[in-house]
Write the structure tokens for this entry.
Amino acid sequence: MTHPATRAASPALTESDISAYRRDGCLIVENVFSESTIERLRQVVDDFVEKSRSVTENDAVFDLEPGHTPERPLLRRLKSPTLNHPLFEEIMRSDVLADMVEPLLGDGVRFQGDKLNMKTAIAGSPVEWHQDFAFYPHTTDDLLAVGIALDDSTLENGCLMAMCGSHLGPVLDHHQDGVFIGAISPSRESMDLGEAVPLEIRAGDVTIHHTKLLHGSAPNRSSVPRRLWLVQYAAVSAWPMMGVRDYDFFNWSLVRGEPATEYKVKDQTVRVPLPGDVYTGATIFELQTKARDTVYR
Ligand SMILES: O=C(O)CCC(=O)C(=O)O
């Protein structure tokens, strides 16, 4: 049975907001960021779009939409915004976000990564259905992503769609012919898309979704952009199962909590995203181009 996503009216989550998140695996929080903060973020993003005019192929910062040219720059994603501009780091570490996610994670707050999906007007690519945990399994599933809306995000311009409650089920197979492609097969999973709930939000609102929540989003065929900055956080007690390459960076990523040598392990089945090129820096858009069983293409 579907129900609309629960909306919390203030960044300070109540017990009932937290229970709704635990039940649904997603939550909308309204009016988290002021118009002036959103305007500052848009300005920074516009500057990156300007810089992308001279870029001809995907690199460490830019994931380009097909059709990108110097005259008409089209970005699919700004990769790792936090590592590329101080305003993103300031907000990623802000109390407003840390206070919101700490009770949901239960055990400190570690920055796990981020991306800003651009969903340009008319040209914005879809995201096929997936669970974030399939990309970066940890020893517990105490991870989530906060989606910060830089534009109003609606069904028309490709808002996030969610299968409420799916985070309580297993991590589904995101492989095709034995290769990790970053998307599930909707027909293999007998998925009923009629159950999907749109997470429609206004600029300055945020979505929060659990790392095991099934979600996706349609292409943007409308005349307005849908920019969504997704910031992922993990509990400090969750250890990344694919290992830690740079321990100094791992500790830099702490937002709340201390460097640890002790981690929790949850009784769960974990699928590892191998073989495939998720660890070469390929984005979800690149990985999913291989998918044959799609909803949005
Ligand atoms: O931007 C979207 O609509 C979905 C993003 C997402 O799920 C992802 O990039 O992992």
